[in-house]
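Section: Multi-chain targets

For targets with more than one molecule, the full set of components is provided together so that the structure can be written out for the assembly as a whole rather than chain by chain. Components appear in the order listed by the source. The example entry contains two components.
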Amino acid sequence: MANHTVASAFAALADPTRRQIFERLAQRTRSVNELAQGLPVTRPAVSQHLRVLTEAGLVTHQRDGARRVYRIDPRGLEMMRAYLDRFWDRALAAFKTAVEGE
Amino acid sequence: MTARSVPPIRKELVVAATAERAFQVFTDGVDRWWPRQHHIGDSPLARAVIEPGVGGRWYGLSQDGTECLVGKVLVWDPPHRLVLAWQITSDWKYDPGFVTEVEVTFVAEGPKTTRVVLEHRDLHRYGLAEPSYRKSIDSPTGGWGFILQSYAQAAAT
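Its structure, encoded as tokens over all components, is:
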């Protein structure tokens, strides 16, 4: 497994189309065709977005005959860790302000 | 990804205050720095609380009066060290059977200079079990929905 960074996960989800794809995969597994049907982008564009999401460790896929079925990476660890990392950055910045105030 | 390959979150900062004050603001003064947008209740956060002493509860008090537990105090050693149990699962619910640890140490480096080191560990416990994962993705406001929102906010700033 690639060494996914927090930054790449954030960057991947900063794009609204990718976020939409991610949300649709959160509902259930889908093929590229199924994803493309509900989105105003071409099938190759969806594939490209899926590649970015996969590289960011957010999405994974498995083969079902000739087609690939995509789903959210169920481990979710990196996402949770990324979220908490941001959380503590924000909290500790506020903590520093509170400690040094007055 | 194996459990052991999930590194802890580690943050370090230096504050212009005594260790006593830093410890006091972190605990008794938690309401002054706790990020408002991270409240897990349905109603907005009125107050964040860390009760003093081992076993003290760590919670948010909603404006509608409900308490939303975050965890509890595991080690209380003012003004040097504090260990808290963070018991919020990936579907954004308090779970008494789920524990990750947040350790905070306060090291005096001068009369009014303190190094604060925070470590949030045991994050491998967020390896999502299938049932909880199912539940969380079905919830538009909790779990993944919440995390997505946070991502969006963070990405936009």
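The radius of gyration of chain B is 17 Å.
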